[in-house]
Amino acid sequence: MTTTSILIISVIVLLIVIIFSTYNTLVRKKNQITNAFSSIDVMFKKRFDLIPNLIASVQQYMKHESETFAHITEMRSKNYSSMSDSEKIQCDKEFSQCKNSFLAVAENYPDLKSSDNFIQLQCAINETEEQLSAARRTYNASVVDYDNSLESIPTMWLAPMMGFSKNQFVLVTAEKEKENVYVKSLFNN
Q1: Closest CA to 29 of 158, 139, 137
Q2: What are the structural domains, with CATH classification, of the chain?
């Protein structure tokens, strides 16, 4: 074999190693995103399962708040396991709005606010929200890592040929959640 043929074979082997390495790295990172989303999915499901408790609380105290009750009931009638990922994200947005409505309306019912069931429900909602927030952060960090890989050389040229594309972040669901907390209002309750 000549030096030229050895050089050509070496370049081809190097290219194959780069392609395989790039592909395997992207597969690992994409699987990490899938795993991170499954954590969000678990929290969405946990949140979804809180809806019957909301319904029970609403039925007892909010006969006049039929709109909130109707929206919660409508959400509960959905079959969580048959929802697509995008439908789960939409349900998450609806739940955030409904939860905020429910908590705001609960302010008008001192008996509800002070009941043990409501306090336990509120604790469960808060815990789930914290876990969901942590799961979103993990997912979004995985998306950043994956997307950075897609934009790096030589991956940026190879990834489209291998069928890899960017992922979307899971963002804060409601404008109200982006607002700063007005601490004074917390002490007026």
Answers
A1: 139
A2: 43-187 (1.20.1440.20)
